[in-house]
Automatic annotation (TrEMBL):
Coiled coil: none annotated. Signal peptide: none annotated. This is Hydrolase. PANTHER family: 2-DEOXYGLUCOSE-6-PHOSPHATE PHOSPHATASE 2 (PTHR18901), PSEUDOURIDINE-5'-PHOSPHATASE (PTHR18901:SF38). GO terms for molecular function: hydrolase activity. Transmembrane segments: none annotated. It comes from the Bacteria.
Length: 233
């Protein structure tokens, strides 16, 4: 398990307004948003229900309790939230055990942030058991801390996960860049007062104040992130 206590000795580049980078996991760093939907469809098929494709946009990027709860209500499946959560996590762990593709540019960006000792946190609505499995592929050393969805009182779209990450890093949320792929995650980051880089995965996201939209992480590097902070001055 990766400790959620930040590593000591991390520092930002002198004179830079960028104090930290906070990254979502599913759909942002790893190409797994489709995995979740496939597992949800398989689990509900085993219960005798077919998921409507339009529901995919409802459940993407949300906490397990919200997504699973919505699907139980929408299908009328005879299963409890706790039972469904266990089945979904089991199915997802099986999927990532077989393959875990990184999003284009993710490995290069993480390596650059690590090289320049930028305080970096992984902030996900996924549960701790899932994050720890994914970290074996992402490289736990890339992150000063990690925040899981089952470790905060309220997860995304509430600001709690990003506020917790900034506090753990000892940085100002307003001087952090958050990288997210869903509207739910963007809402959480903006509610925390962070500048957001949106890399839409399933549904479109529009640019807005303190929100920059790119098509791929291949467009994002440390110079790009420093530039965002400079624009805010």
């Amino acid at each position: 398990m990766t400790s959620t206590v930040p590593a000591l000795g991390t520092r930002t580049a002198e004179g830079s307004a960028l104090q930290g980078v906070l990254l979502d996991m599913d759909g942002t760093l790893v190409d797994t948003e489709g995995f979740w939907w496939d597992v949800e469809a398989e689990v509900f098929a085993s219960l005798g229900h077919t998921l409507d494709e339009s529901w995919r946009h409802v459940v993407v990027g949300g906490p397990m309790t919200r997504s699973a709860g919505f699907l139980i209500e929408a299908t009328g499946a005879d299963i409890t939230l706790d039972e469904l959560t266990e089945l979904l996590n089991d199915g997802f762990e099986d999927r990532i055990g077989r393959a875990l593709p990184l999003m284009p540019g993710a490995g290069r960006l993480l390596a650059e942030l690590y090289e320049y000792e930028i305080p970096t946190a992984l902030v996900s609505a996924s549960h701790r058991r899932i994050i720890d499995r994914v970290l074996t592929s992402l490289g736990a050393h890339h992150f000063s801390l990690t925040v899981a969805g089952d470790e905060v009182p309220r997860t995304k779209p509430h600001p709690d996960p990003y506020l917790a990450a900034a506090a753990g890093l000892g940085v100002d949320p307003a001087r952090c860049a958050v990288i997210e792929d869903t509207a739910t995650g963007v809402a959480a980051a903006e509610a925390a007062g962070c500048h957001v880089v949106a890399v839409p995965s399933v549904a479109p996201i529009s640019p807005a104040l303190r929100r920059t939209v790119v098509t791929s992480l291949e467009e994002v590097d440390l110079t790009f992130l420093h530039g965002l902070m400079t624009q805010m001055r």
